[in-house]
Design goal:
361 residues; alpha/beta; Peroxisomal Thiolase, Chain A, domain 1; 2 domains; 13-stranded mixed beta sheet; 21% strand
């Protein structure tokens, strides 16, 4: 560990020991970091054929998942994922104090219809593709603040449902520009707890040490087929604020992980941070790039959707932390805050990004 990293770690630890909750302008540091005690990821066939395919808990080849509509299929996907994470944690529905979840569909219908039968108190949240970061943030605050002992955070997305709502129905057969991303069919969930009763021998414990909540950032992008360009400035602002709020440098983290900027947004983010003398090139990854093979899967700019960062984090990132490959990551899901109405009225596409500090101990 170099001198800067040691100093950075001491600054954050000192804040927690002194009982500070807030850090800088937009961040929170947890005195008693809550644990991530279980995680689950379910995906569609295309995602299962990608580089991370072997890591997901289940690959569902039927895109309809036995239902009549794309929306019903996504609800079923979320329900199955919630049930899977409960099973992996060895918990019953009634043992979860709150469920915090969201999706891309209007009025969060995938979430509300999907988890209704679980009968868990719900906070429905929307941050577009940044929703997993928002759900984890709120869950960690509730647990560390003593308002809940266990919280389930979950998101989902479905390629066909998202195309139908935001772009073109599949039957239209339109061509997609190279800047466009491919909405992930998938759902990721995790359980945040005030203690880890079932620690697995040989695995690191995973905790959330702090968060940096994002602000809406709008650089005037109007191209709904170029989400990377719309979201990259928001990721830049949140990551920069995290560095400033905690007085740290990029080398504090083993990986800085954005949600779904893809190949277009990745380059924009790196350049924006370099302008502020932060070089993250050697420790940066993007979930939208990791989940698909650009050469063989024809997904153009990469993956996107609420499920993109959620399944990549729960299937891949947590595995690296548990095995000790990485010790500390900054997880930064990114979202493009547009709707059918705003797009049709010619509005810009604002972005937002929420950062969650996750550590293996």
């Amino acid at each position: 560990m170099d001198e800067n990293t040691a100093t950075n770690k001491k600054d954050i630890k000192d804040k927690a020991i002194k009982g500070y909750k807030s850090a800088g302008k937009q961040s929170i540091v947890f005195k008693n970091p809550p644990y991530i005690i279980a995680e689950a990821s379910l995906v569609g066939q295309k995602e299962g054929e990608g580089p991370l395919g072997a890591l997901f808990d289940q690959v569902i080849e039927d895109p309809m998942i036995g239902k009549n509509t794309w929306e019903e299929a996504e609800s079923e996907l979320m329900k199955l994922t919630a049930q899977r994470v409960l099973m992996k944690a060895g918990l019953k529905n009634r043992e979860i104090r709150y469920l915090i979840g969201g999706d891309l569909l209007g009025q969060l219908i995938a979430t509300s219809f999907g988890i209704a039968e679980l009968q868990i108190p719900l906070f429905g949240v929307y941050g577009a593709c940044s929703t997993m970061g928002e759900a984890m943030t709120i869950g960690a605050i509730l647990v560390e603040g003593g308002y809940a002992d266990k919280v389930l955070s979950i998101t989902s997305s479905h390629f066909a449902g998202a195309e139908k709502q935001f772009r073109f129905p599949l039957d239209y057969g339109n061509q997609r520009p190279y800047s466009a991303s491919w909405t992930v069919t998938g759902s990721g969930a995790l359980i945040i707890s005030d203690q880890n009763e079932k620690k697995v021998a040989g695995e690191k414990e995973i905790v959330i040490t702090g968060v940096t909540s994002g602000k809406i950032v709008d650089y005037g992008i109007k191209d709904s087929m170029n989400m990377g360009a719309a979201m990259a400035p928001a990721a830049f602002e949140t990551i920069k604020q995290n560095f400033e709020d905690f007085n740290i440098q990029p080398n504090y983290y083993d990986r800085i992980i954005t949600g779904d900027l893809g190949y277009v947004g990745k380059n924009i983010l790196i350049e924006l941070l370099k302008e502020k003398d932060y070089d993250i090139t050697d420790r940066y990854m993007d979930c939208g790039i990791e989940i698909f093979d650009k050469e063989t899967q024809d997904t153009h700019a990469g993956g996107s959707g609420c499920g993109c960062s959620a399944v990549t984090f729960t299937a891949y990132v947590i595995k690296q932390l548990k095995e000790g490959v990485w010790k500390r990551v900054l997880f930064v899901p990114t979202g493009a805050l547009l709707s059918q109405v705003s797009f049709n009225e010619g509005n810009t596409v604002p972005g937002i990004a929420h950062a969650v500090m996750v550590e293996a101990r």
